[in-house]
């Protein structure tokens, strides 16, 4: 875990003092809402449907138990007893009072947390692979690279007022668990033929109104040029990005209009100038950061055997437990998707329990996933049953990771002022329709993602099945998409046809799964069958 | 009818103009006729409300019912957490929204 140095502490403390004064001036009438709004947004404070909402950053999704407990404390003391984990690996609190906000930020700072880079047209909180540091398939831990980017991007004076928000993801394995190519910049840390680590840089991806998959811009950027190259990528965007039209302001539009080759040329020219500035950190600085992410002291000689005599436990192991790089250890994903529950929500008590489990069984570490679940990254296999039992006692042992009920859903019209339709009730109805876990397992990996508006916080473009809620003459209507993926087989979903009512969309999905079951070849997932047979058989079943 | 709504500056709570002040309960909302925009300006300047706006609503025996679902959800609370709405004991409260 990265630990703040004196600079981190001082800039966060200074930001809280500044915001406390801004809140005071707003409450005393010295600022209008128009003047205050951009300032509160820079501190993660939104005004949503029912109240202020505070979004707290979880850099690259990594937390320790102390930080997780603080989130539980915030939920209990300042909110209504729960928090909502988001698709940016952050957490949102939905019922915050303006006057409490400086105090909340002060409490967060005591555990090295903040709400910086969770809103505004800046480089947002860097996201990463939730299995980082534990994954058996990674070439290195991507988090030191992500932390380096956090330090580079936090309060970067040139990139505080970009044309639009800017999202970066960093991974270090061929398996993409972070929707890397659907980011403004996606970075895969790779090894070159000489065994050196560097970044493979994709630029111009994103979801939202105009979804795009980021093209490859540079195959390998060595560490020595890493920050300069990214600085050049941002500078070109900052110079040419469309500030005149919010719908065309993301970097994906710039690259689409320029073309990847022209953008690359511009970046290379800018890089030659930036490189002279000497902004790339020395290797020693990277090593200092990386030391914070040194692997924990794994016990050696542990058995890989797991007693699978309890069938429910065995099912959970099969679904929610993943391979770890250290013998005798495993990665546990805690599902925040109980049948009929709200995807990504956890009560303060559940947050505390996950913190306790991390402290006792996972070297004090937790991760937030972009799929709105929580990971215990380093659990000894001989502890798995105890962890499972404690999770089950807390209602957190749903064995549905990557199954149809492991739904990504944005807060939708139940909470969000931008939404056109409610996402959560649709997710609940689908989960209830497919509540039988045997049926879910029979369907296999099926990533279902729901957004309540075109902004696509629920990643509907990247769902094997995607749902987009729209407002049709004041009535909620739901468009259906098939064929998206945010993984290494990245693709964008296609709309099936006319939309559905809330109940109609559940029926349509059931019919689609029936087509899949009837037509799948051995080993095919839903999305594989869709890609092979195309949209028509599904449309016939749904609309016929 | 036209009614005026916004959020409380300090708490963020959804509030409704009652003719004399602001209430959390839409049942208290009064028709503002064509005075909504000027009322909004005055009340916002006095910091008694944040980002007020006028909406269309239907007058019903139970009180005003906003024309748009977004404002009906604002009036009640999240439909997926009945316990956090203004009518946690009313099992039919959600049907008023839909």
From TrEMBL, chain A:
Transmembrane segments: none
Xref: Pfam families: NIR_SIR, NIR_SIR_ferr
Domain Nitrite/sulphite reductase 4Fe-4S positions: 119-272, 405-542
Record keywords, A-Z: 4Fe-4S, Heme, Iron, Iron-sulfur, Metal-binding, Oxidoreductase
Top-level division of the source organism's lineage: Bacteria
Molecular function terms from GO: 4 iron, 4 sulfur cluster binding; heme binding; metal ion binding; sulfite reductase (NADPH) activity
Gene3D superfamilies assigned to the protein according to its UniProt record, in alphabetical order: Sulfite Reductase Hemoprotein, domain 1, Sulfite Reductase Hemoprotein,Domain 2
InterPro entries: NIR_SIR_4Fe-4S, NiRdtase/SiRdtase_haem-b_fer, Nit/Sulf_reduc_fer-like_dom_sf, NO2/SO3_Rdtase_4Fe4S_dom, NO2/SO3_Rdtase_4Fe4S_sf
Domain Nitrite/Sulfite reductase ferredoxin-like: 52-109, 342-392
E.C. number(s) listed in UniProt: 1.8.1.2
SUPFAM superfamilies cross-referenced by the UniProt entry: Nitrite and sulphite reductase 4Fe-4S domain-like, Nitrite/Sulfite reductase N-terminal domain-like
Listed name of the protein: Sulfite reductase (NADPH) hemoprotein beta-component
Taxonomic placement: Bacteria, Pseudomonadati, Pseudomonadota, Alphaproteobacteria, Sphingomonadales
Automatic annotation (TrEMBL), chain B:
InterPro entries: DUF2849 (IPR021270)
Pfam family, one: DUF2849
Domain of life: Bacteria
Name of the molecule in the record: DUF2849 domain-containing protein
């Amino acid at each position: 875990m990265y630990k703040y140095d004196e600079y981190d502490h001082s800039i966060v403390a200074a930001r809280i003092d500044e915001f406390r004064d801004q809140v005071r001036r707003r409450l005393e009438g010295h600022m209008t809402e128009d003047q205050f709004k951009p300032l509160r947004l820079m501190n993660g404070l939104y005004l949503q449907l029912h109240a202020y909402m505070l979004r707290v950053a979880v850099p690259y999704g990594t937390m320790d138990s102390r930080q997780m407990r603080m989130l539980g404390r915030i939920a209990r003391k300042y909110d209504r007893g729960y928090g909502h984990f988001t698709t940016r690996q952050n957490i949102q609190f939905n019922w915050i009072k303006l006057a409490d906000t400086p105090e909340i930020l002060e409490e967060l700072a005591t555990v090295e947390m903040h709400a910086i880079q969770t809103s505004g047209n800046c480089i947002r909180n860097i996201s990463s692979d939730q299995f980082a540091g534990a994954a058996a398939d990674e070439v290195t831990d991507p988090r030191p690279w992500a932390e380096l980017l956090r330090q580079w991007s936090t309060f970067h004076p040139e990139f505080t007022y970009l044309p639009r928000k800017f999202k970066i993801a960093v991974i270090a394995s061929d398996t993409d668990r972070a929707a890397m190519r659907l980011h403004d910049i996606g970075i895969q840390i790779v090894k070159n033929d000489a065994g050196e680590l560097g970044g493979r840089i994709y630029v111009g991806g994103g979801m939202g109104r105009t979804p795009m998959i980021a093209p490859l811009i540079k195959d390998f950027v060595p560490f020595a040029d890493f920050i300069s190259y990214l600085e050049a990528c941002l500078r070109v965007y900052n110079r040419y990005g469309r500030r005149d039209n919010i719908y065309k302001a993301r970097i994906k539009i710039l690259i689409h209009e320029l073309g990847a080759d022209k953008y690359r040329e511009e970046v290379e020219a800018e890089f030659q100038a930036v490189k002279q500035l000497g902004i790339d950190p020395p290797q020693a600085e990277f090593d200092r950061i990386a030391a914070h992410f040194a692997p924990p002291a794994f016990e050696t000689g542990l058995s890989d055997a797991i007693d699978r005599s309890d069938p429910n436990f065995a099912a959970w192991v099969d679904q929610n437990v993943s391979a770890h790089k250290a013998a005798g250890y495993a990665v546990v994903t805690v599902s925040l998707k109980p049948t009929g529950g709200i995807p990504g929500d956890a009560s303060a008590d559940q947050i505390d329990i996950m913190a306790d489990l991390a402290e006792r069984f996972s070297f004090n570490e937790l991760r937030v996933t972009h799929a709105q679940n929580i990971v215990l990254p380093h659990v000894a296999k001989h502890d798995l049953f105890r962890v499972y039992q404690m999770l089950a006692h807390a209602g957190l042992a749903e064995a549905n990771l990557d199954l149809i009920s492991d739904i990504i859903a944005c807060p939708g019209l139940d909470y969000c002022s931008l939404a056109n339709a409610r996402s959560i009730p649709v997710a609940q109805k689908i989960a209830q329709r497919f509540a039988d876990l045997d049926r879910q397992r029979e369907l296999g990996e099926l990533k279902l993602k729901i957004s309540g508006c075109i902004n696509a916080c629920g990643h509907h473009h990247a769902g094997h099945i995607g749902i987009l809620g729209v407002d049709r003459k004041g009535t909620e209507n739901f468009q259906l998409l098939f064929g998206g993926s945010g993984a290494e087989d990245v693709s964008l979903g296609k709309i099936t046809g006319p939309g559905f009512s809330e109940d109609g969309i559940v029926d349509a999905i059931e019919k689609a799964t029936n087509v899949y079951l009837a037509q799948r070849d051995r080993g095919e997932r839903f999305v594989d069958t869709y890609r092979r047979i195309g949209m028509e058989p599904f449309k016939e079943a749904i609309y016929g | 009818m036209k009614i005026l709504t916004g959020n409380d500056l300090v708490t963020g709570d959804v509030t409704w103009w009652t003719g004399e002040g602001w209430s959390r309960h839409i049942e208290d909302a009064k028709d503002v006729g064509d005075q909504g925009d000027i009322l909004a300006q005055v009340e916002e300047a006095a910091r008694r409300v944040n980002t007020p706006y006028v909406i269309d609503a239907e007058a019903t025996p139970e009180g005003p019912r906003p024309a748009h679902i977004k404002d009906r959800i604002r009036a009640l609370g999240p439909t997926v957490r009945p316990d956090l709405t203004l009518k946690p004991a009313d099992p039919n409260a959600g049907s008023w929204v839909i």
